């Protein structure tokens, strides 16, 4: 991390912050300035050594899971907020940061075309989805929640926690919810909520939201959009392929939306967001806490959130990031998303033109967002899975970090009747989440290391 601007920026901003409390009589906190700096330094050395035991998530050669570094301004703003450590449960606990949360969330809602809504930050996408399904369950008690087999695994678990019946629905060869299978469920008459994933975790598949909304007209159900990963792609929907573009452009018609600023929004972990189109669902959150609401008459975020204490620093970091990089379709932030997507298309192209024909991309088309998955060609799916494992390890030895994912074999065999084509057989595939803007410039290097690793494994295999 050369030339990190954060320490310098932080020092000057911290002085400005401290000045605003300068009229207070000096007081050294018991644990703080009185502590022994040398002892702290030794502990921090240990911490640094411990933290070295990590994949280099911040580097463009880390192209595996959904991990990217927070923007420097987010890191700096978060660290600055630590001087105060505000709690956005109530205005008493975080006056400034509550207002920043309200402003930042309003900007996110604006991405989806909403001006009148109810929303707030959460500690994660899981908590945000929990709130969405909790409200959905209150609105249609006894009804089922359905989501695709590729929806995030937590929807099933959340439904169990909320004691809502849950069913998963098959997907098509592209990992999108199958409309036929969905309609079969809707015919049964007891579906209260359909979870529509815009950007699945495994492969970035985009469920056909526009067509599901048309079904809502006929069957009547609640539509919850899980855009924890993909939500921000609404900013560049015009650059997506037709089905994904139609899906994203219909997002304003959803009943609730989840998006994770800590995934694609350049934030430190601990930052999800839930939005409801109908602000009146706020009534479900009503509670009387005797502790918190004494000194302000304004709405507390704690009155519209299931969680009590929440990091005000998350709101501060998000607000700062959106000040620097506004959520505008033509802005730098949106361009960053577009760069990751173009890296994914480049990789897909290389996989397809790969002369050795070692790799097999998804049969049914190009990546919908910025996640690429591919299978290794082999006589059996078992051999293919083993080769994927070995290539994954060989890449890591070359400092290229990819991920592995289990996918249905039939996604790679569109002609029905092939081995496992209709079955539930899974194959281990290689997966790359190209979510950093720098991935575009590094794609050549990434490809070289992948190709070399693959050749090495194939050569070893010939020798065995
Ligand atoms: C990551 C993810 C989640 C879960 O969000 P967390 O912030 O990890 O709790 C839910 N849905 C989708 C589609 C995701 O990609």
The largest β sheet comes out as: 7 strands, mixed
Report how far the terminal alpha carbons are from each other. 41 Å
Number of domains: 2
Question: What general outline do the C-alpha atoms trace?
Answer: globular
CATH topology of the largest domain: Aspartate Aminotransferase, domain 2
Instruction: Characterize the quaternary organization of these chains.
Output: single chain
Give a quick precis of the structure.
The chain is an alpha/beta fold and 464 residues long. The protein has helices spanning 6-19, 37-51, 72-81, 95-111, 125-139, 154-161, 179-187, 209-219, 242-249, 312-324, 332-353, 381-397, 439-463, and strands at 118-122, 144-148, 166-169, 191-197, 222-227, 256-259, 272-276, 359-361, 371-376, 403-408, 426-433. Helix 5 (125-139) packs across helix 6 and helix 12 (381-397) packs across helix 13 (439-463).
Tell me what you see in this structure.
The protein has 464 residues and is of the alpha/beta class. The chain has 2 domains: 95-324, 3-Layer(aba) Sandwich (Aspartate Aminotransferase, domain 2); 332-463, Aspartate Aminotransferase, domain 1. 40% of the residues lie in helices and 13% in strands. The chain has helices at residues 6-19, 37-51, 72-81, 95-111, 125-139, 154-161, 179-187, 209-219, 242-249, 312-324, 332-353, 381-397, 439-463, and strands spanning 118-122, 144-148, 166-169, 191-197, 222-227, 256-259, 272-276, 359-361, 371-376, 403-408, 426-433. The strands form 2 sheets. The chain has a 7-stranded mixed sheet with strand order 1-7-6-5-4-2-3, sandwiched between helices. A 4-stranded antiparallel sheet has the order 8-9-11-10. Strand 2 (144-148), helix 6 (154-161) and strand 3 (166-169) form a beta-alpha-beta unit. Helix 1 runs parallel beside helix 3 (72-81), helix 7 (179-187) runs parallel beside helix 8 (209-219) and helix 12 crosses helix 13. The longest helix has 25 residues, at 439-463. The structure holds pyridoxal-5'-phosphate. The site of pyridoxal-5'-phosphate (PLP) has 15 residues, from helix 5.
